What does this fold into?
Amino acid sequence: MKNGTNVGALPPLIGDVMTDQKHYIDNLFADTWKKLKLTSRIKAAGFTKRSGIDITEAVFLLLLWKWINVPSIAMFSRKALGMLSRVKKDVMYDLLKREDINWRAFNLQTAKGIYQQNTLGQSRIRAFVLDDSIKTRRGKKMEGVSSHLIM
It folds into this structure.
């Protein structure tokens, strides 16, 4: 059977999950989402959305898009979005463009939660960096925003 995804182009962990017949990537991601309590972390970071789908669903899809390393939201929406949600790609693009979304607070909340859940206080590890890459963005309040990949 021919698989449409070039597994060699994906990071090893994701490539292994994509080819594993026993696990579905969206279920694995959803389980990790619950374990890390990302819904409450999104609320704690102050993410809001006025209408349509819930903000947590939109963030879930954005993080899933980054995690599976699809080059663009448009390609992600063509290949997978319809199977996962009723969200349109415009919702994801709009969420990325919003200047009032504090991705750094969300990143800090997530890193802090992982640190506490894994009792790293007594460990030699003194920092937990989820992703330290910088994606240059333009806008009134945007000096530089980290590109977030949680996993």
Q: What stands out?
A: The longest helix spans residues 103-117. The longest strand covers residues 134-135. The chain has seven helices and two strands.
